[in-house]
Write a structure and sequence with these properties.
Layout lengths: L2 H15 L7 H10 L17 H14 L6 H13 L5 H9 L4 E2 L5 E7 L5 E11 L6 E5 L5 E6 L5 E5 L9 E10 L5 E4 H40 L1 E2 L2 E2 L4 H28 L6 H28 L10 H14 L4 H16 L1
Parallel strand pairs: 1-4
Antiparallel strand pairs: 2-3, 3-7, 4-5, 5-8, 6-7, 9-10
Length: 350
Amino acid sequence: MNADLLELQQSVRQVLAGRAVAADEQDAWPLLVELGWLLAGVPEELGGLGQGLAGACVLQIELGRRLAAVPFLPAALALDAVCQSALADREQWVERLTAGQYVAAPLAESAFDLEQASGGTARLTGLASGVQSADRASHALVWTRAGDCVALAPLERAGVELVARPTWDRTHRLFDLRFTGLELDETLVLARGAAAQALVRRLGALRDLGLAADAVGGANALLELTVEHLQVRRQFGRPLALFQALKHRCADLKTLIAAAEALLLDSLGRLGDAIADAEAELKAETAKYLASSTYAKVAEEALQLHGGIGMAAEHQCHLFLKRALLNEQLGRQDECYALDIADSLLARLD
């Protein structure tokens, strides 16, 4: 990371250190907006900090360390889509979104179809899952199943249904978003045709890299919490941290996290802002797959290393475990990533 990103990381960590783990969304979101963190990935010509994808991921790592309940990733996706669009009032939309108006975006695969109704009106029909905090959003960022249209869809209209989807992870409030013949507002179409397909690939890569960053941050924080417990907890008259077998288990976990973090940072460095092609898509999938599987492994091991207290549902270990298991299901399912990575490796052998 360059000096600007390191300074951003340190300032975010200092701010979040004074707040509880999994701080309430209603309290944390205004702070995030007030401090201008949503501006990190916005280009300078649109009034942002110009730190691009790397800046957004640095923020997501730190938010992941504190299990922040704020919908930063979907907000960042919507902001990036608007920045990449040719909207006539693009600057006004960027200003509104960075000032706190929230536009949701699905963190799982969505399936919308665009149908031409009588009179030439286009209507959206379909379902999106994993839409975080959709009940407080004014619009949703959606794209068609074929990837030929990306648009902002108003949520306070007929034909829109929100269904809460409770999960174990209480730090994320997820919803299913169903459209039944929702009229498409042409003034809110961000891209069509080939430009829309490129934007959809870009948004998929951004989502996967953001989820990878959240996993890296959470895994690091959980391992630190576990090591601290082993240093304090005593057995047979000495700290558990002195037992060689436990040292080796922690060292193995640190190695896994370091590998996932290195892959994420390497991908960010190689991609820069060019993330709309197949190579970028594969790099993002690989980073997400390794980071989310590593997070789940660390969370399961941490639960055991905490012993009896780790089995208590009120312990912080369970918050991290539930976030880790949810991250594995967001984006595309891990099996899909594994197949894409395997196909890529096999293709290189031909």
